[in-house]
Amino acid sequence: MTWSDLDENERTALKRLNRGPYPALEPSLAERLIAYGLVERRDRGIGINRAGRELVIGVLLNQRED
Q1: Over the range 8-42, which residues count as b (16 or more CB within 10 Å of their CB) and which as e?
Q2: Segment 6-55, tens digit of pLDDT
Q3: Closest CA to 48 of 26, 33, 27, 66
Q4: How far is the C-alpha of 11 from the C-alpha of 14, rounded, in Å?
Q5: Neighbours of 55 (CB within 10 A)
Q6: Is 63's pLDDT higher than 90?
Q7: Is residue 62 scored above 80 in pLDDT?
Q8: Is residue 66 scored above 60 in pLDDT?
Q9: C-alpha to C-alpha distance for 66 and 52, rounded to whole angstroms
Q10: For residues 21 and 2, is the Cβ–Cβ distance under 8 A?
Q11: Confidence band (pLDDT; 50, 70, 90) for 65?
């Protein structure tokens, strides 16, 4: 999964999840991100996992370099 594979809503959700809980995350969007292997269910709700965090951080670091 690459950043360009995601639509704008998925990208926004991952960026928000990278900052912390995102209670307004739509269930269907959460399910897609889970299926992509970028987020997971946790006791407190949906949270970004290592793969999702690495994807977001990589994109953010590349933006700084540009």
Answers
A1: eebbebbeebbeeebeebeeebbebbeebebbeee
A2: 999 999 999 999 999 999 999 999 999 999 999 999 999 999 999 999 99
A3: 33
A4: 5
A5: 22
A6: no
A7: yes
A8: no
A9: 22
A10: no
A11: low
- Domain extents for the chain? 3-65
User: At CA 62, angle to CA 59 and CA 66, rounded to 5?
Assistant: 140
CA dist 27 and 62 (Å) reads 30
Q: How far, in Å, CA of 11 to CA of 3, rounded?
A: 7
| Tokens 């739509």 belong to residue | 26
What pLDDT is attached to residue 50? 98
